[in-house]
Amino acid sequence: MRESFNKVRAKAPLRLGLAGGGTDVAPYSDAFGGMVLNATVSLYAYCTVTPRSDGLVSLEALDIDKSFQCPAQPSLPLGHELALVAQAYNRIVSDFCNGQPFAVTIRTHADVPPGSGLGSSSTMVVAVVTALCEYLRVPLGEYETARLAFNIERQDLGLSGGKQDQYAATFGGFNLMEFYAADRVIINPLRLRPWIISELEAGLILYFSGRSRASAAIIEEQVHNVKTGQSRSIEAMHRLKDQARQMKEALLLGDFAGFGEVLRDGWTAKRDMAANISTAEIEQVLDAAIATGAHGGKISGAGGGGFVMISVPPERKPGVLKALGSFRGNLFNCHFTQEGAQAWTVL
């Protein structure tokens, strides 16, 4: 380990779940194998690491106005709102510094609110791990970075969720992801022709319905349904996994009608996984979008709120946007990205 004396920054892209979301969550992925197709977009989680000379570690979440500070130590306390960042620091110290702490300020912020359904919490962990590894000159590969971020969030802290977010943020781009037992993960990048990506972007609408307050409960219910063998939920996840394959084919062929059909079918299957995935507002938004010409749409994430992703023929996008203007949510602009997590030293 060689500690930097310069400021280091990192960013990791958020993702849109296109098909198969939820099948990356154990025990389904362990028992049946999960498959997810997602794509990263130009909305990011950021981390800045700055050296200190006073022997302290300071954590600052600039976008939610939360902070925590204590003396540098091998294991920072976790009983506060920045436990994810603290545990990322703890694992870096434990795994790569022989238990020797170092004094730094770690500042984070994201382009979207927490609970967005775009994987912001997991993406933030990837950004922090990437920044700290750059700061310490630790050469982690993509699989190693994603696996460490997953372990910090799901195993160390016991937070509910799947695996796709960490791998999407680390690898970037359009990826068909396979998830199996024993932490076996295979990332298959899709080589889409540029005109297909441009057409998708031209017809993409992101509608933010508000922070999801039910996602953890939805994931826990999904896990319970699989463990207890509830056939409706398990069959829904089988359909979602198959839709990831269908979505891959539609994208590679530039079949946008097929793309929209998979979105619609995926949303129907997703609602069968657990209760409270949808809300009255989300259903009204999707109905209004489809009535004015959208191919289809779905929640990105576990559900209960967050971002609604809508695919529209570009020439019909102004009409759909006008229809959505009558709802209380916010519209976001973004582009698809090919790059995953990146870090750089500020001299």
UniProtKB/TrEMBL annotation:
A GO term for molecular function: kinase activity
Record keywords, A-Z: ATP-binding, Kinase, Nucleotide-binding, Transferase
Extent of the signal sequence: none
Keyword Nucleotide-binding assigned: yes
Pfam families per record: GHMP_kinases_C, GHMP_kinases_N
Annotated GHMP kinase N-terminal domain residues: 85-173
Domain GHMP kinase C-terminal: 247-317
UniProt-listed InterPro entries: GHMP_Kinase-Related, GHMP_kinase_C_dom, GHMP_kinase_C_sf, GHMP_kinase_N_dom, GHMP_knse_ATP-bd_CS, HddA/FKP, Heptose_7-P_kinase, Ribosomal_Su5_D2-typ_SF
Family: Belongs to the GHMP kinase family.
PANTHER family, A to Z: L-FUCOSE KINASE (PTHR32463:SF0)
Designated name of the protein: GHMP kinase
Organism encoding this protein: Pseudogemmobacter lacusdianii
